[in-house]
Write a structure and sequence with these properties.
309 residues, alpha+beta, 2 domains, 5-stranded mixed beta sheet, 5 strands, transmembrane helix, zinc
């Protein structure tokens, strides 16, 4: 019964939530909260699917008791794993667990490996063909087309082209650099990597693909907001337009994603989300993260006093 509930929850959230969430108008007003919501939804579906398989292998009350014991920290004596006879549901659970684990591992190896190789190549090219600009603390590539991007990694690197230095006035140049440093400071590349891994591992589950696509847009909105902390929104919008170009690399670029929406957003007065709306969406994030585990632990919590006798 618990396995069916978890599997049903994973299907409901994995297939039903993406459409509603992608149409939510509040996301562009609070991109960081929207990022958290998308990541929580994807994480919740993955955890629910894994727990559904685990419940087929190990009885639900054993898993629930184990989680409660882990939180209580009151010892494991007297709570050993019971003998588990071979059954068809258990075989299905083992096969599902192995399959999901292997797909996640393979996807992580391919995505992370490809990103590391690409970033290493870009970093090598920047070191060889670029020059360090000590005043701006950026690397400059001798290229006529105005462009800017960041290369995550040890220390992080902001890269500008010579065309960007010639084209951008000082205020817009500062906005561009602030945008890229926001990407680095908030580790947006890690968020995109996690989303890419889930999307590659389970491409038929809508929530994973939508999370990956939406995060690419939302991190740009969040970085724009980071730039507006020290620069006028109009200045950031002009910089976005000057650098508008199709993405040429996997790096996080200033003018490569959702340009029209970003410019309109920066030039339009936005009313922040009301505190009650923020609280409601924060509770949704918490519910998405906690519900899969709660299905297992709530029955065990009813007998919590027994665990620490």
């Amino acid at each position: 019964m618990i396995a069916v509930l978890l599997a049903g929850y994973a299907v409901l959230v994995g297939f039903g939530l993406p459409h509603r969430l992608s149409e939510a108008s509040w996301a562009s007003r609070a991109p960081r909260l929207a990022i958290s919501t998308w990541l929580a939804a994807a994480t919740s579906v993955a955890c629910a699917a894994l727990l559904a398989a685990a419940v087929l292998i190990v009885p639900a009350h054993v898993l629930g008791d184990s989680l409660v014991l882990l939180v209580q920290g009151c010892g494991w004596s007297g709570h050993g794993l019971p003998a588990l006879p071979w059954t068809v549901p258990r075989a299905v659970g083992i096969a599902a667990m192995i399959g999901m684990t292997l797909r996640l591992g393979y996807a992580a190896a391919r995505v992370v490996g490809a990103q590391r190789r690409l970033r290493a190549r870009h970093r090598r090219d920047v070191r060889l063909a670029g020059r360090f600009h000590p005043t701006l603390d950026v690397f400059v590539l001798d290229h006529a087309h105005p462009s800017a991007f960041c290369l995550p990694g040890r220390g992080g690197t902001v890269v500008l082209t010579a065309g960007a230095l010639r084209t951008l006035p000082p205020a817009e140049l500062a906005a561009v650099i602030a945008h890229e440093r926001t990407h680095l400071d908030r580790r947006h590349h890690h968020l995109l990597t996690c989303a890419a891994v889930l999307d590659r591992a389970f491409p038929l589950v809508p929530v994973f693909g939508e999370t990956h696509r939406e995060l690419r847009r939302l991190v740009e909105l969040a970085a724009d907001d980071g730039a507006t902390r020290n620069c006028a929104p109009q200045t950031v919008a002009r910089a976005v337009l000057r650098l508008a170009a199709p993405p040429t690399t996997s790096a996080l670029g200033m003018g490569s994603t959702a340009v029209r929406q970003r410019v309109q957003r920066l030039l339009t007065a936005r009313t922040p989300l009301h505190r009650s709306a923020v609280v409601a969406r924060a509770l949704l994030v918490a519910a998405l993260l906690l519900l899969p585990a709660a299905v297992l632990t709530l029955p065990a919590l009813s007998d919590a006093a027994h665990h620490c006798d």
